[in-house]
Write a structure and sequence with these properties.
single chain; 55 residues; mainly alpha; 3 helices; 0% strand; globular
Length: 55
């Protein structure tokens, strides 16, 4: 599994509320939901390396 790195994120309050709601609906943490969203977007845009894509 890839090593995870923490970082601060400033985000619009309405966007965060929407992500929190979506995460709750999917039984994920907000952090897990955001990570899943970013991975999906990167994969869809073909910007995710093959090595990361398999994790």
């Amino acid at each position: 599994m890839a090593k995870k790195k923490a970082f601060a994120l400033r985000i619009n309050e309405d966007i965060l509320k929407a992500v929190e709601k979506w995460a709750a609906d999917e039984f994920r943490s907000t952090n897990g939901q955001m990570e899943w969203m970013m991975q999906k977007c990167l994969k869809d845009a073909k910007r995710l390396s093959k090595r990361i894509d398999k994790d």
